[in-house]
Specification:
- It is a single chain.
- The chain has a single domain, classed as L-arginine/glycine Amidinotransferase, Chain A, CATH 3.75.10.10.
- It has 8 helices and 19 strands.
- Helix 3 links the parallel strand 8 and strand 9.
- The chain is globular.
- About 45% of the residues are buried.
Length: about 375
């Protein structure tokens, strides 16, 4: 492969990293409510239905940690590309809806996914994030100009009209008993209908020939089907999780290197046959430790399991939140050089270390790491 012209090449989450997109906190917004998101930060001065730009202090702290992460990657020979933030405070609209604000451009992982020489833009299931791709278009256009083999694909933009969401989902949820809520969770009865394909790229995780996609509050069965049809050369597996939150697969199922994967112990990401798939191929499945963090940063809507939202630079090197020593010790025990990166001030802007990145170039090619498949699965 000619590295002088090849910019985009990434088949998994662990091959040696040479180029990455890393987000920014600039202009980040606490977005207003919409059908898929109902936030109430009344205790922090932002009640339901209102919105506000993050304070200069919060943005400054988050950017300081993002910039430190960027310098760490660059010191290890990784080229780091950063988005050009558009004004996330502006009102946006389509013929179907009007939304008072956008969100920002911290977590490129939610929107962008590299598969081989292609970068896919996900649909995005929130109206406030429908136009988020504009932050990254200058980068993508530069890749397209410089790399003759690069493929830029955008999944069909969903209408996100009233038919996309189950009516009065949150109001109905509050009327359910605990048993009814458990039943809804255990059958993945989430807010999205199957009217149109919807998925976030951060609900996908790549293992070479195999891709695991989590059905969630932002990814529906139609979105998983679209990915299967778009990547016929891959085996796309549906993963289920058991929480009623828009939390992505990168705090659920975390590949570390060939033969080693970490899972979240309080979710059920792997059905018995999926667990068998890893075991039959000789993979070790380890359980992520509980986070030391017990209280989220103000306005953070992310999971407390961001401690396992790690970012792999190569099969021997991994970046971990600096304060989360149990994860660091676990990965050190498994032979990793662990780089502690302070990052929790970034969490209100949309996630952790893995969330803040989109790996663009990793050395390596398409390989089959799970060649022994299970019949009928």
């Amino acid at each position: 492969m000619d590295k002088t012209t090849t910019i985009v090449n990434s088949w998994n989450e662990w091959d040696p990293l040479k180029r990455v997109i890393l987000g920014r906190a600039d202009g980040g917004m606490i977005e207003t409510a919409e059908p898929a998101i109902q936030r109430d930060w009344s205790a922090l001065g932002v009640p339901f239905g209102s919105h506000r730009r993050f304070s200069d202090e919060m943005i400054g702290k988050a950017n300081e940690q993002l910039d430190y992460f960027a310098r760490t990657l660059e010191s290890r020979g990784v080229q780091v590309d950063r988005p050009d933030p558009i004004d996330a405070s502006q009102q946006v609209s389509t013929p179907d809806w009007v939304q008072d604000t956008m969100v920002g451009c911290m977590p490129p992982r939610d929107l962008l996914m590299a598969v081989g020489n292609e970068i896919v833009e996900a649909t995005m299931s929130l109206r406030s994030r429908w136009f988020e791709y504009l932050n990254y278009r200058p980068i993508i256009q530069q890749y397209y100009r410089d790399d003759p083999n690069f493929r830029h694909e955008a999944a069909p933009k969903p209408r996100l009209n009233e038919q996309t969401y189950k009516p009065k989902f949150y109001e109905h949820w509050e009327t359910l008993t605990s048993a009814e809520k458990d039943a809804a969770i255990n059958t993945a009865d989430w807010i999205l209908t199957e009217t149109e394909p919807c998925f976030d790229a951060a609900d996908c995780v790549r293992f070479g020939k195999d891709m695991f996609v989590q059905k969630s509050m932002v990814t529906n069965e139609a979105g998983i089907r679209w990915l299967r049809q778009h990547f016929p050369e891959l085996r796309v597996h549906r993963v289920f999780y058991n929480e009623m939150q828009p939390w992505h697969i990168d705090t659920t199922l975390v590949p570390l290197r060939p033969g080693l994967v970490m899972i979240n112990p309080v979710r059920t990401p792997l059905e018995s046959r999926q667990l068998e798939l890893f075991q039959k191929n000789g993979w070790e499945v380890i359980t992520g430790p509980k986070a030391l963090l017990t209280k989220k940063r103000p306005f953070a809507y992310t999971s407390l399991w961001l401690n396992i939202n790690v970012f792999v630079i190569d099969p021997k090197t991994v970046c971990v939140e600096a304060s989360e020593t149990p994860v660091q010790e676990l990965l050190d025990h498994h032979g990793f050089n662990v780089l502690p990166i302070p990052f929790y001030d970034v969490s209100p802007f949309g996630g952790g270390l893995h969330c803040s990145t989109c790996d663009v170039y990793r050395e390596g090619s398409l390989e089959d790491y799970l060649p022994t498949q299970i019949e009928g699965y």
